[in-house]
């Protein structure tokens, strides 16, 4: 029994060792990904349910890992956040997203999104020249500041409220808009609405999933939509996957929706040729 116990221990140890090597390997390859041009920009439509057309797009990053193929954010964003690489990734996405949408607007002014939203991880708020980075991306690409939305989760906003508010005000003075992402999943959702200057509220997918089967959830989502509107915010329902969900949201007065039912994330060139096929009910 003793020998077996020891064997198990060694097995466990070598497994840990492998994991560590694997992680170091991923980390060094992720570190080079930006410079090697391995990041890919995908855009997902945000649909205006009244005008029945794509109103905006959300920028979502992918990593074309030469060893493992196309990686979704869940596979590398956590590592990027732990290692601090995330601010370089976010900077790349910010620039590419502004560029892609500006080019789209120039090409087809009547059939292009009015805004692009970009996700910012917490570490960005510690960068002293964040506002300069944003201003630089806008100036170099020529995208109007009114066309850019920065998405921050409640966990990001949860840090020092005074510092965060000052930061966001600085950004808003450029003319860009601020969205609270994954609204409703944080620690003090109502607190942020009171204390933090925001323009857009994105209702988390967990409140949309199963909406058709849960009257109580419907009342809750309906109330959140009204709340957002009362505060003068744009409200976007995330993760809409079915026609029933879309119909319910329309009936509740939701103006904007995003989800697989309306359009999956895709490279900009694929999306721009498909905008005519948007479904809105
Ligand atoms: P998020 O910001 O909440 O983005 C929405 C996620 O939900 C995206 O996943 C999108 O593909 C997915 N989604 C959209 N519609 C549906 C639907 O109808 N059903 C389901 N099941 N999922 C849907 P994705 O692209 O895998 O990104 C996951 C998360 O990674 C994002 O969540 C965001 O937190 C983070 N992320 C993505 N790109 C970036 C980035 O450039 N920078 C930073 N900091 N984070 C990013
Ligand atoms: Ca987001
Ligand atoms: Ca979200
Ligand atoms: Ca999320």
Automatic annotation (TrEMBL):
Intact protein stretch covered?
522 to 802 of 811
| Name this polypeptide is given | Bifunctional diguanylate cyclase/phosphodiesterase
Source organism (scientific name): Paractinoplanes globisporus
Q: Where is the EAL domain?
A: 23-279
Q: Where in the cell is it found?
A: Membrane
């Amino acid at each position: 029994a003793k020998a077996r116990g020891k064997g198990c221990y060694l097995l466990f140890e070598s497994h840990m060792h492998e994991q560590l090597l694997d992680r170091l390997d991923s980390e060094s390859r992720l570190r080079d990904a930006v410079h090697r041009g391995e990041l890919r920009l995908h855009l997902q439509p945000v649909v205006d349910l009244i005008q029945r057309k794509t109103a905006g797009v959300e920028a979502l990053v992918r990593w074309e890992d030469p060893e493992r193929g196309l990686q979704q954010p869940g596979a590398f964003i956590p590592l990027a956040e732990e290692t601090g690489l995330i601010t370089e990734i976010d900077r790349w996405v910010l620039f590419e997203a502004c560029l892609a949408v500006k080019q789209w607007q120039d090409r087809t002014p009547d059939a292009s999104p009015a805004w692009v939203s970009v996700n910012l991880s917490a570490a960005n708020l510690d960068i002293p020249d964040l506002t300069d980075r944003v201003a630089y991306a806008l100036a170099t690409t020529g995208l109007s500041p009114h066309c850019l939305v920065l998405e921050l989760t409640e966990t990001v906003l949860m840090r020092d409220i005074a510092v965060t508010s000052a930061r966001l005000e600085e950004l808003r003075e450029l003319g860009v808009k601020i969205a609270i992402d994954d609204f409703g999943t944080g620690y003090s959702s109502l607190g942020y609405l009171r204390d933090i200057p925001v323009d857009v509220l994105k209702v988390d997918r967990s409140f949309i999933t199963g909406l058709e089967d849960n009257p109580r959830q419907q009342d809750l989502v309906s109330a959140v939509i009204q709340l957002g509107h009362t505060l003068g915010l744009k409200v976007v329902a995330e993760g809409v996957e079915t026609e029933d969900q879309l119909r319910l949201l329309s009936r509740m007065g939701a103006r904007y929706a995003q989800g697989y039912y309306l359009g999956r994330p895709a490279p900009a060139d694929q999306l721009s040729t498909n905008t005519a096929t948007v479904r809105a009910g």
